[in-house]
Automatic annotation (TrEMBL):
Residues recorded as bearing Pyruvic acid (Ser) in the entry: 182
The family this protein is said to belong to: Belongs to the phosphatidylserine decarboxylase family. PSD-A subfamily.
Cleavage (non-hydrolytic) (site feature) positions: 181-182
Protein name: Phosphatidylserine decarboxylase proenzyme
Co-factor(s): pyruvate
Source organism, top-level taxon: Bacteria
Taxonomic source organism: Thermosulfuriphilus ammonigenes
The keyword Membrane is assigned to this record: yes
Catalytic residues as annotated in Swiss-Prot or TrEMBL: 182 (schiff-base intermediate with substrate)
PTM notes: Is synthesized initially as an inactive proenzyme. Formation of the active enzyme involves a self-maturation process in which the active site pyruvoyl group is generated from an internal serine residue via an autocatalytic post-translational modification. Two non-identical subunits are generated from the proenzyme in this reaction, and the pyruvate is formed at the N-terminus of the alpha chain, which is derived from the carboxyl end of the proenzyme.
Length: 216
């Protein structure tokens, strides 16, 4: 579809189903249905695209875990896992963004917990607390912990997870996705230097959002 891009396996049943419907409709002479199903299949193939990404080599970078637009940068108290005042960067994904989520740093998965909730619009501040979400807590080799929260949105009805607790991830490695339209919140220590601004567009596994020097 695009150079160095594939369709993620999560989308294959959706894409295949749409094109099979289109094929059946053509054979039955239902051209409008066939065209609509074909257009749906093309959109789903676009939505589930999974481009190749090469992350920056500096391990001190905290990378964007999602494609999208930065909608919030703030200092907040994270009460569930980090239990401290930290920086929070929120990234909003529309249905037109790549939805594959990637590890912001290299580290070991200390926790990956799913919590049910509502389905408010993901760009609302309250969504971080009440929407369906999944918490991914990573610990770097130097002991620094970074928390990424997948937050389901108004249209998103499923958070997909591909990793387990105790697993080691490389920076930029795929760990899950959300269908269809959502946000990701990233929490990290305040000694980090923020490298992005609100309204800036970022790419998962590619764009550094902060710099947190490796501790000796």
């Amino acid at each position: 579809m695009f150079p160095a891009t594939k369709i993620n396996r999560e989308g294959l049943p959706f894409v295949g189903g749409a094109f099979l419907t289109a094929l059946g409709a053509w054979r039955l002479g239902r051209k409008r249905l066939a065209l609509a199903a074909s257009a749906t299949g093309l959109f789903l193939a676009y939505f589930f695209r999974d481009p190749y990404r090469r992350p920056p080599e500096d391990p001190s970078f905290i990378l964007a875990p999602a494609d999208g637009r930065v909608i919030e940068i703030t200092r907040a108290y994270e009460e569930n896992f980090l239990k401290d005042y930290v920086f929070k960067v929120s990234i909003f994904m529309t249905v037109f963004d790549v939805h594959v989520n990637r590890a912001p740093v290299a580290g070991r998965v200390l926790s990956y917990i799913h919590r049910p909730g509502c389905f408010l619009a993901a760009n609302k501040p309250k969504a971080s607390q009440v929407n369906e979400r999944a918490y991914l807590l990573l610990e770097r080799d130097d002991g620094q912990r970074i928390l990424t929260v997948q937050v389901a949105g108004l249209l998103a009805r499923r958070i997909v997870r591909w990793v387990r607790e105790g697993q080691s991830l490389e920076a930029g490695e795929r760990f899950g996705m959300i269908r269809f339209g959502s946000r990701l919140d990233v929490y990290f220590p305040t000694r980090a230097q923020i490298l992005v601004r609100e309204k800036e567009r970022v790419r998962a596994g590619k764009t550094p959002i902060a710099y947190l020097p490796i501790r000796d």
